[in-house]
User: Fold this.
Amino acid sequence: MRVIIEPDAAAVSNRAATRVADLIRRSPACVLGLPTGRTPLGFYAELVRRHREKGLSFSQVVTFSLDDYIGLPPHHSASWAAYMRRNLFDHVDIVPANTHLLEGGTEDLSGVCESYEAAIRKAGGIDLQILGIGPNGHIAFNEPGSSLGSRTRVKTLTPETLEANAPSFEDLDELPRLGITMGVGTVLEARSCLLLALGEEKALAVREMVEGPITAQVPASALQLHPDATTILDEGAASRLLRRHYYRDVEEAQGRLTRAAGTA
Ligand code: PGA
Assistant:
């Protein structure tokens, strides 16, 4: 896994936005997998800025949500759809029909899961899956113990995840106990994965993801199996990595090579 350590959250957001903007410019009809949560807020704000100030167009981009809650009223502010409209979709030229949702409000949840996998296949697969990580090592709502081959399905949320997500709910009685989520196997099929993590509260999970054994107890560790997975971290999230100095050396060496190739 490629590990990029940036000085702060703004630099992480900027670096991730550059990766996405480069992909969209190269491949305007690319397919993105998108997360919610606190971590990507600055990243979405930076994409909106680039749309407004630099003409970055989402007019052909296709998106798939990574997960959502089950049982929330459709327009609840904590739902994936509301979050994405608020933070990205309402501010760029994306076509609503190209934004795929995991709809947790219906009764036929297994049908929703199957058609979601089919829709991803029909779109030609996900080119770039953006991810966050939970303090317990989850990716999407794949909580510890999730099969590393799992597909889109319903998951019961852990007490840690409920606690972390509680601030998005004014009324805690509304906090759903179940989520609907792409599986670890679904995530691993994306052509590239990009996981963002901010702050010391993610540092242990990040170390287990990058340097620990591959285990269903830390679903993010499955990214070690992916041929093109990158994590972009701020100093806090990188603070418990045992080889963090080496990862910096790798990036510096890579930068020198790229610059040399550019001047050759
Ligand atoms: P956060 O959530 O970005 O709000 O920390 C990440 C996650 O739980 O996957």
